Amino acid sequence: MSDIPNQTVSLLDAARVVARGGDLDARLQALAAHAHGSAQALAVVVYLVDATGERLVPIASQGSLEAEPATIDLSGAPEIATAALVRRQTQLMSPEEATAAFGALAASGARTVAAVPLVATDLNGDPEVEGLLVVGMDEGATEIPEPLLALADLAAVTIRQARLENTLHEHADWLHRVANTDTLTGLANRATFDRMLQLELARAARHGTPVGVALFAVDGLDIIAERDGAGASDDVLRSIAATLADQLRLIDTVARIEPSVFAAICPGSSGPEAASRVREAVAQPQVSTVSADLPVTVTAAVVSYPDDASEADAVVTVAMSLLEKARTTQPGGVAQRSTSPKR
Question: How far apart, in whole angstroms, are the C-alpha atoms of residue 335 and residue 331?
Fold first, then answer.
């Protein structure tokens, strides 16, 4: 290793910084340190183009700076500050020009300042400017040393890598939400309800405790949709979903399991109480009059594990049967197994 030029050793170390991954700020700070140690650099600032493309945000710096680098609004920045971004070409400037564009470098004593665009390839294969590497050097220069250009390329790759990782995380989060939530109401969907019911019943079996399952059917939703449109019925569903989330406990799982049916898994013996509380809350004016002058009500059915059924599928089957019967015989009530619907 001793026969390898120092600049090459520095670039090898910088490449390792990029390859090892980790926090973006820390990696760019390390690359700024490598840039500061090369090509007689007195000060180095790495700027990142923000998500809107309207600002340059300082994210790493090294060397003798008069003050902490500030965010630069590109709409009001001097042309020389934006030229490197627009043209995707390195710009050399005098200390006076650099002070006007990048005030933080004013005290560095640099005789030449270079603004090197950080260019990487986007998902479509097109070059995209990720930011700027601004370097103050202690002697006049007519071109940028190759090591600095190489470090700029490594910084661009680092930023692009971080942005791709963020995009992947966001996409994974979105897929997770789509797979587990009802898109209209934001509550858990049927698949999540079924999975949580299995988990709650298994936990209850281990501890010998009951679990209540309450179903809520929205009365007259078809009439609301026919009279006021699908948008009105969607508003009703969203309003009732919000009421359910507000009235039930944090430990309860609330889901929309059919177009007009909601469900709640209530660990313990609180199912009947929860159903009554929800039914009364839905009857309040701010919920019951969501659809013009047509009152909104819900019919509820409550079953209990293990008294009414001992397996998840059977619990849901018994509850649905009880709910359908209650909707016919006494809509707006709370039905329980072996009891009559309650008003």
Answer: 10
